[in-house]
Amino acid sequence: MQPTVKKTVKTIIHQGNDYLICVKANQKSLYERVQAISADCAPVSVYRSTESTRQRQVERIVEVFDCLAGIAPDWLGLRHLVRVQRQGRRQGKSYDQVSYYISSLATTARQFAIAIQGHWGIENRLHWVKDVVLREDECPLKQGHAPANWGLIRSWAINLFRLQGHTSITKAQHRVAHDIEALLLLVQ
């Protein structure tokens, strides 16, 4: 029996692109296999970095593995497994977190670190703002086109605030909340 190729991965590869996919615990067999490989095999590339910002200190260790034994062949183009360990202190509390990725990229641990941090930058600058600041998940409009339409409006508002130079969406909201002139100046 021929393995089923993952459709999204197949599309990515056939369009001449590469993928870097986070492997989560809900993908049980893949997750366990990647964990086992990273525990048993030696990495082909390692990158360490330390960062201190505000009330946060973090050390990242990115390891790249080329051992793919036991990984289902339906991950077309798979070349590397990546393990990212983050250790540090956030608001006085210690944490130790490990994430796993699979990728078709043939690159170094340093380049994987840059790509993964770039993704988290997007996550923090957009999705976190929508979820926490604009409380998107609490929106009572859940049917029809309303969720998509409100999502577009939220993205539009965030982009307008950022185009006007606001680094804090919360402060920008407060500034224009009761000032129609300031609100209208955003769209000029």
Would you kindly provide a written description of the structure presented here, covering whatever features stand out?
The chain is an alpha+beta fold and 188 residues long. Helices cover 41% and strands 24% of the residues. It has 6 helices and 5 strands. The protein has helices at residues 7-14, 28-40, 109-133, 146-163, 169-176, 180-185, and strands at residues 20-23, 45-53, 56-65, 80-90, 93-103. A 5-stranded antiparallel sheet has the order 1-5-4-3-2, with helices on both faces. A hairpin with a 2-residue loop joins β4 and β5. The termini are far apart.
Please compute the radius of gyration using only Cα atoms.
21 Å
- Count of individual helical segments: 6
Write down how many β-strands occur, each being a DSSP E stretch of 2 or more residues.
5
N-C termini distance: 61 Å
Query: Ranges with pLDDT <50 over ≥5 residues?
Result: none
Give the % helix.
40-55%
The main β sheet shows up as: 5 strands, antiparallel
Average pLDDT confidence is: 83
- Mass-distribution shape: globular
Strand content: 15-25%
Query: Reading side by side through the largest sheet, how are the strands ordered?
Result: 1-5-4-3-2
SSE order, as H and E?
HEHEEEEHHHH
The structure class reads alpha+beta
